[in-house]
Design the sequence.
């Protein structure tokens, strides 16, 4: 099993510790460094293997996570970057795109959704907020059961695990997934799941 190596950059100690603990609980993830100042991410040992950096927008010493992400990508282009913020300043999203950030997420999402974004970003998919909450018409075409399938997909559940959780056969899950993709026009379930997370559709409509 591949283990995703994560750097966490967050200046609030309690939140940083909480993120580190949540990520380290995952079997396929490991925090290799936790920092309070975004500028320090550039000083990490070049020999330390990193898959993704999770950076707050504003960190200690007035350092910008977005600027650090841009410089990190220039120095180590193989490293994926995810920006997070608790502030609703829409210019941050534009700045992050211009800096070449891979994904952007707000801090008010659930931990499971954040972990899903980290995984999908490492797989090569980008997640950015929609222009407004729920702005995902293709996701609105899905029924409650299909949203539950997406939710479990975001938790990195296998098709067999999804079938067991929803008391369905694997064949039925496969058929429903095919119907979901045909209905929404997506060619990949993970892409659709990421879209649902970024629009808030899963968090609003599906209970754990």
Sequence:
């Amino acid at each position: 099993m591949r283990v995703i190596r994560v750097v966490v950059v967050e200046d609030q100690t309690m939140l940083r510790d909480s993120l580190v603990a949540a990520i380290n609980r995952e079997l396929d993830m490991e925090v290799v460094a936790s920092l309070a100042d975004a500028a320090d991410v550039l000083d990490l040992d070049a020999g330390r293997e990193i898959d993704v950096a999770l950076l707050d927008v504003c960190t200690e010493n007035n350092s910008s996570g977005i600027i650090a992400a841009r410089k990190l990508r220039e120095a180590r282009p193989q490293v994926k970057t995810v920006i997070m913020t608790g502030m609703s300043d829409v210019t941050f999203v534009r700045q992050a795109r211009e800096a070449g950030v891979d994904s952007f997420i707000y801090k008010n999402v659930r931990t499971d959704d954040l972990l899903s974004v980290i995984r999908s970003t490492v797989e090569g998919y980008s997640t950015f907020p929609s222009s407004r909450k729920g702005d995902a018409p293709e996701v609105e075409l899905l029924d409650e059961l299909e949203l539950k399938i997406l939710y479990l997909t975001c938790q990195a559940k296998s098709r067999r695990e999804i079938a067991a959780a929803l008391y369905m056969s694997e064949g039925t899950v496969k058929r429903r997934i095919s119907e979901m993709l045909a209905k929404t026009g997506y060619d990949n379930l993970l892409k659709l799941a990421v879209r649902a997370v970024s629009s808030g559709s899963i968090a609003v409509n599906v209970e754990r």
User: Anything to note?
Assistant: DSSP finds nine helices and five strands in the chain. The mean pLDDT is 85. The beta strands are 4-9, 29-35, 52-56, 80-85, 103-106.
